[in-house]
Amino acid sequence: MPERYTRVAIAFHWFVAILIVTNVALALSWPHVADESVRPLIGNHKSIGMTVLGLAIMRLLWRLTHRPPPYPPVYARWETRLAHWVHAGLYVLMFALPLSGWIMDSAWEKAADNPNYYFGLFEWPRIAAIMALDPVTKKQVHEGFGAAHEIAGYILYLLVFLHVAGALKHQLQGHRELARMGVGPA
Prior knowledge:
By secondary structure, this protein is mostly helical.
């Protein structure tokens, strides 16, 4: 019987995973919707990103205080090392993507005229120090962090693919990997 993650860790995992998949779907949909629909989608994308950032902070604190179950001893050493690197990369991206997006958004030339609302509930502040930059520097920050945000997104796609592929590989080999993360009987 595989050792499972804690219920809290499982909830963080699946909630963040759903939010990330939703955010990827929103970003991929922008080129295919009418212009008037793009800004609301971007607003939801930003709100989800800030939610992921908040959950990432809580998830990291939980992870630092609750040791995850060990990998089954039948896993090859290279597999456990790769899994650790993929998990570390996913944690980095859970912070890097929302932060780079927030910085990029704060440097947007029209930010002062377009308040940012968290799911329409309240105004989410932009980073004042970035908004106060001179226009040339602000444009460079917007473009630089926009490029970083996009590159980080592609790295996310790769890491999610490796994460899912590894879990499915072990599941298909009968290791009941999905049960460790709350899918199916323990």
